[in-house]
Design goal:
Blueprint: E1 2-9, H1 10-22, E2 28-33, E3 40-48, H2 53-63, E4 66-73, E5 85-92, E6 94-100
Antiparallel strand pairs: 1-3, 1-6, 2-3, 4-5
Helix pairs in contact: 1-2
């Protein structure tokens, strides 16, 4: 068995959840915050059989879209008098971790 952790953008979370549930996967949903942008994310956790990992990750990838956004960068600490200016960055997509599960039981 494997445990799949997926960190997805809040904008994509409902589509990912709906698609995983439609295929019969049980999902635990947690609110999380990214460390770089300090924006809300959703972390999904599921325990699946080894042969289901590719199906789960494919669904997550299909419904987790990358997008760009502007982020103000402030270099005034290095160069006083320079105003912050926006930089386009890529956000979204999914970060997926798959780990072995030694034991799984429902209590």
């Amino acid at each position: 068995m494997k445990m799949v952790f997926a960190v997805v953008n809040n904008d994509d979370a409902q589509d990912v959840l709906r698609s995983l549930r439609k295929e019969g996967f049980y999902i635990t949903k947690l609110a999380s915050t990214g460390g770089f942008l300090m924006k809300g994310n959703t972390t999904l956790i599921s325990v699946v059989e080894n042969e289901q990992v590719e199906d789960v990750t494919a669904i997550i990838k299909e419904h987790s879209k990358r997008r760009t956004q502007l982020m103000p960068i402030d270099y005034s600490q290095f160069n006083p008098g320079v105003a912050p200016y926006p930089v386009e960055i890529t956000v979204g997509g999914a970060t997926i971790f798959v780990v072995d599960v030694e034991k799984f039981e429902r209590a």
